[in-house]
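Regression test case RT-17, inverse folding.

Input:
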C-alpha cells in the first residue's frame, strides 16, 4: 500500500520540463482509470436525473457531452499550465439533487439556474473567499472529510467480491500481485486480470454500438426565481461542500499547493460555457484526484500532472462518443467497476487517514474532532438536501471549538 503523501507543498513555480520528458505510461493509465471510474458511476447519476426530469435522448446525450468535454478541456489545460494533476469533473451530489428537482421546471429555466450557479461559484472562487474559508479549517478535519468521501468506495470492494467473486476477486488479486511485483502498474494489473476473467466467465455482455459522434444541443437559458431558488442555491452549496472542498483538500493532502482562485475560476468559466449544452456544474474532483495524485500514478510527485492531461484527453474523447461510451459501459459487470474504483483509491484513503490522525500545529483534541467529522461524513446524511461532507466539516469544526482548551490558544 502507498506510503502517506508528502507534506511539502509543490507549487507551479518550479523549472518546467517538457511534457515529452515527463510522460509516463503509469500516469497516462491513471488518467484513463479516473475517466473509467467517472463513467462507471457518476455518469449514471446524470442519466438517472435526465430520466427523472423527462429529458429527450438528444438532450441527455448533450448533457453527457457537455460535462465530458467541459471537464476534459479544463483538466488538460489546467494540468499543463500548473504542472499539477488538476482533476475536474461534474458535480455528483448536484446531479443527485436534480433527480428530484429537474422535472419541476422547464429545461431552459434549469439551464438558466445552471448559469447562475456557475457565476456565483466563479465569484466565490476568484475572490479567494472559498480558499480562505477552507484554509481556516484544521487540516485533520479536512483530511477526515476526504477520508469520509473516499471510504465508501473502498468498503464496497468486499461486497463486490461476494456478489461477483470470480471477476471482482480476480481484480483484487491482480491489484495485490501488482503491489507486490510492479507497484506503479498495480491498478493496471487489477484491470487486466479483471477484464480477462470477465471474458472467460462470459460476463461481458454484447451490445450494439453506434460509433457516430454525439451532437450537442444548444439551449438558450431563461431565468426564473423559482428555478434559481430551487436549483441554483442548493446546487451551489452541494457542489462547493461536496466537491470543491474535498477536491482542494485532496490536492493539499497529496502535497500540492493548489491555487484555489485559478482552479475554481477555471472550473467556473467552464461551467458557464457548457451550461447551455446541459452541463449542470463542473468542479474540482476528489475521488478521481485520489487516483491521479497517488504514488501509483508516478513516484515523482512533479510528474503526476500527466495523469490530469491524460484524463482530460480521454474525457474529451469519451464525450465526443457519449452515446457509444454509455452503451459500452452497460456491458461491464458492475462489481468489476466497483472493485476497480475501491482498490484504485486505497492509496489516497491511506494518506487522508494518516493526516486526520496527526494534529500537527493543532491541539490533540483535533484528532477526536476529525474522527467525529469522519463519522458524520460517512453517514451520508443530507438534511435540507445538503450532502454529508458539508455537515461533517461543520460538526467537526464545532466539536474542535468545544474540545480545545482556551489556555492553549492564547499564544497563537
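Golden output:
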Amino acid at each position: 500500500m502507498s506510503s502517506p503523501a508528502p507534506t511539502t507543498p509543490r507549487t507551479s513555480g518550479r523549472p518546467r520540463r517538457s511534457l515529452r520528458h515527463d510522460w509516463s505510461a503509469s500516469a497516462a493509465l491513471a488518467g484513463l482509470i479516473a475517466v473509467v471510474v467517472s463513467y462507471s458511476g457518476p455518469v449514471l447519476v446524470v442519466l438517472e436525473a435526465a430520466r427523472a426530469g423527462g429529458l429527450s435522448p438528444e438532450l441527455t446525450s448533450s448533457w453527457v457531452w457537455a460535462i465530458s468535454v467541459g471537464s476534459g478541456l479544463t483538466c488538460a489545460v489546467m494540468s499543463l499550465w500548473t504542472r499539477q494533476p488538476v482533476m475536474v469533473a461534474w458535480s455528483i451530489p448536484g446531479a443527485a439533487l436534480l433527480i428530484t428537482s429537474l422535472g419541476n421546471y422547464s429545461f431552459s429555466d434549469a439551464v438558466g439556474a445552471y448559469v447562475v450557479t456557475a457565476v456565483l461559484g466563479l465569484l466565490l472562487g476568484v475572490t479567494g473567499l472559498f480558499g480562505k474559508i477552507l484554509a481556516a479549517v484544521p487540516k485533520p478535519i479536512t483530511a477526515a472529510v476526504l477520508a469520509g468521501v473516499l471510504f465508501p468506495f473502498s468498503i464496497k470492494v468486499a461486497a463486490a467480491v461476494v456478489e461477483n467473486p470470480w471477476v471482482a476477486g480476480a481484480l483484487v488479486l491482480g491489484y495485490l500481485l501488482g503491489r507486490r511485483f510492479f507497484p506503479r502498474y498495480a491498478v493496471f494489473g487489477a484491470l487486466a486480470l479483471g477484464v480477462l476473467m470477465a471474458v472467460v466467465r462470459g460476463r461481458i455482455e454484447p451490445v450494439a454500438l453506434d460509433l457516430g459522434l454525439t451532437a450537442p444541443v444548444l439551449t438558450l437559458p431563461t431565468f426564473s426565481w423559482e428555478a434559481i431558488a430551487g436549483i441554483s442555491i442548493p446546487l451551489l452549496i452541494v457542489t462547493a461542500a461536496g466537491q470543491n472542498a474535498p477536491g482542494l483538500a485532496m490536492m493539499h493532502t497529496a502535497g500540492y499547493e493548489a491555487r484555489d482562485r485559478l482552479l475554481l475560476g477555471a472550473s467556473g468559466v467552464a461551467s458557464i460555457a457548457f451550461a447551455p449544452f446541459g452541463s449542470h456544474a463542473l468542479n474540482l474532483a476528489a475521488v478521481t484526484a485520489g487516483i491521479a495524485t497517488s504514488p501509483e500514478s508516478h513516484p515523482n510527485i512533479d510528474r503526476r500532472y500527466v495523469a490530469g492531461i491524460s484524463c482530460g484527453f480521454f474525457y474529451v474523447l469519451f464525450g465526443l462518443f457519449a452515446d457509444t461510451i454509455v452503451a459500452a459501459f452497460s456491458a461491464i459487470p458492475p462489481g468489476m467497476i466497483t472493485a476497480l474504483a475501491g482498490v484504485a483509491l486505497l492509496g489516497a484513503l491511506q494518506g487522508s487517514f494518516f493526516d486526520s490522525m496527526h494534529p500537527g500545529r493543532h491541539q490533540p483534541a483535533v484528532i477526536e474532532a476529525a474522527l467525529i467529522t469522519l463519522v458524520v461524513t460517512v453517514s451520508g446524511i443530507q438534511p435540507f438536501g445538503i450532502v454529508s461532507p458539508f455537515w461533517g466539516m461543520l460538526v467537526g469544526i464545532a466539536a474542535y471549538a468545544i474540545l480545545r482548551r482556551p489556555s492553549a490558544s492564547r499564544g497563537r
